Amino acid sequence: MKKLKRITKVLGYVVLGIVILGGVVLGGYYIKWITVSNGNMNRLENPAPELSSGTFSYRDLNKNGKLDVYEDRRETVDDRIEDLLSQMTLDEKAGLMFINMIAMNPDGTLSETPSFKDPITFAFDANSTYVAAKKMSHFNIIQSPDDPKVLIRWNNNIQKLAERTRLGIPITIASDPRHGVRDNPGAGIESSLFSEWPSPLGLAATRDFKLVQEFAKIANQEYRAVGIRLALHPTADLATEPRWARISDTFGEDASLSAQMTSAYIQGFQGDSIGTESIACMTKHFSGGGPQKDGWDAHFENGKQQVYPGNNFEYHLIPFEAAIKAKTAQIMPYYGIPQGQSSEEVAFGFNKEIITGLLRDTYGYNGVVCTDWGIISDMFVKPASDWGMENASPKEKIAKVLNAGCDMFGGESLPELVVELVGEGTIPEKRLDKSVRRILRDKFNLGLFDDPYLDEDNARLLRQQSFIDRGKEAQRRSLTLLKNENGLLPIAEKSKVYLQGFSDNFEYSDIERVANPEKANFIVLKLSTPFEPSDGSILARFFKQGRLDFPKEEKEELLRLIALKPTIAVLTIDRPPVIPEINKASRAVIADFFSSEEIIMDLILGKFNPNGKLPIEVPSSMKAVENQLEDVPYDSKNPLYPFGHGLRY
Fold it and tell me: Which residues, listed in sequence order, are joined to residue 99 by a DSSP beta bridge?
């Protein structure tokens, strides 16, 4: 007993020592964070005063007591750009060319020290480091607070911080898609603040271009209400390789359909031209990120090759031609190396023949070109995706990107390296000026220089009932009936139904949900497309890629369940599943593109008639998938369901 007490006492001291040591270390870091923040704040000036010139009032952004051309909204955008450019230092130009993720505190205040209430804040520098020290003014927000006033408050706080910089250049806030139900930090963000719509693949299933434009107009209003002014979408890539992880973000595998959808999407977000009520679109991923070798995604090393065994490179350009015609404000190239398409085997962002030769010269595109995230340096979620330039230094990679013709660096905060490149004569400052002009044009056209602030009453503009209703209607119209053996659907109300794959707390008043499948009249089996678990980087674990068929044991278990009662299989499609046995055994099959569970049940009970048509084909076997060509649409042998298939009641 005494020995046990001694051991307990010793363990107590050890634990106490660890706690004290942890406190000391954390305290040291906290002091460091505060010191850094204070140093950044000391770099800043007073807020811009509101002044008058005659009857005209303006924000004196550079605090010089007079009206400069760039502060005067009555002047042309070109004149405002040239005036501001003439006043900018090399540091300020370099900072303008970087966009990275940024954190905010849970209450909407600036994130100057990490918060245990939101651990993601530990992954980023202080807000003031980016704005005051690095002179950056473009940020990608990835947090999704439940209260819209948090986003609005943070917008105003970060804009006020930017106003205190020497020239008062406002912040452009960007976001990945937020109007779906998927949550993938590399592709989209789940949010309770916005109306919910089907995936882009589901929008394509509706074949309704006016509906897509209406979605974009609604998303525009919801984005503007909280300060988001740059959409890191649409995805104009073609889903010609069924194993690729990003298929759900596309409009499918048909170039003509995707082109029309992409055009409608951009017009809805931007309007006929960029103005104060626009959301600028960054269309991705030029020149088409779909034909990944064996389907592996180009974020990661095993997916760095984009291949064209069907000699179909030009086919993938068609949606981007539509985006350029629709005047997309910005374009993002993908990570991959376009095998055999240029004299140098380097990724799109480093590839001068693709960016300058094809995009700039052939298509005459003069908008902003921004690299995909993290092609220069490692991110906390993944190593650098620097394919073809793996052995180059960060500075060499930056020079390569600039020489290729890109304007901005996504997921990076390295303006000091651009300054060094200019200082040593590797990159002329006039080259930066070309990019700065393009970048500033969007800021001026969006009206950010004139008034970047928001009213917290904007919160009432989110999730308006009419927006919610249109999102639900789009979900209904996206659902696609693939099979209805002997007219099984719709089923009768008050049927006894066993649900698998639905939320445990899902209730639907028009059926009797039973816990035992043997006591059911019907089984409704909701399935997600299989994938291969990743053991790679943090980000890789969010990407579902690889196999499309169920492992043998899981498939046999599903087939045993299906054999018990007439089964309706609901396939939630982020990639096309390979399910020949499950399809044969099921009496009805529905393709779901991330609709709500209630709407799926509404379809099953016949409360509306199915409308969707497949925007991709559903392959019949993994062998057919492996034998198809990555760059060619609808080319797998004897597909289970072909492109365009869709039944009605």
Answer: 138, 410
pLDDT at 114: 85
Distance CA 607, CA 603 (A): 6
Residue 105 is encoded by which pair of tokens? 């505190």
Query: Measured between alpha carbons, how far is residue 126 from residues 91, 121, 167, 192, 227 in Å?
Result: 19, 9, 20, 26, 20
Q: What phi-psi label fits residue 373: left (phi over 0), alpha (psi between -120 and 50 degrees) or beta?
A: beta
* Ranges of the chain with pLDDT below 70: 1-30, 181-188, 535
Amino acid, single-letter form, for residue 59: R
The two structure tokens encoding residue 7 = 């051991």
Query: Active-site positions?
Result: 372
Q: Which two tokens stand for residue 570?
A: 């609901």
Q: Residue 532's pLDDT is what?
A: 86
* Whole-number Å distance between alpha carbons of 349 and 207: 32
Burial class (CB in 10 A: 0-12, 13-18, 19+), 433: middle
Identify the pLDDT of residue 545.
87
**Peptide bond between residue 185 and the one before it cis (omega within 30 degrees of 0):** no
**Angle at the Cα of 117 (from 114 to 118), degrees rounded to 5?**
65
Residues 455, 123: Cα–Cα separation, whole Å: 29
Tokens of 8: 């307990």
Q: Which pLDDT score is estimated for 18?
A: 62
Torsion angle defined by CA atoms of residues 451, 456, 458 and 459, in that order, rounded to the nearest 10 degrees:
150
- pLDDT of the residue at 116: 80
Number of Cβ within 10 Å of residue 141's Cβ equals: 22
As a dihedral over the C-alpha atoms of residue 531, residue 592, residue 288, residue 292, rounded to 10 degrees, the angle is 20
- 554: helix, strand or coil: helix
Report the run of H or E that residue 285 belongs to, with start and end.
strand 280-286
512-513 and 337-338 strand pairing: unpaired
CA 573 to CA 247: how far, in whole Å? 9
* 284: phi then psi, degrees, rounded to nearest 5: -140, 155
Q: What was the pLDDT predicted at 627?
A: 97
Contact between residue 545 and residue 532 where contact means Cβ atoms under 8 Å apart: yes
**Integer CA distances (angstroms), 485 to 495, 616, 618, in order:** 18, 22, 18
Give the C-alpha separation, 353 to 337, whole Å.
12
Query: Residue 254 is which amino acid?
Result: D
Report pLDDT for 183: 44
Q: Is the pTM of the predicted complex or chain greater than 0.85?
A: yes
d(CA 421, CA 438): 20
Do 179 and 211 form a contact (C-beta atoms < 8 A)? no
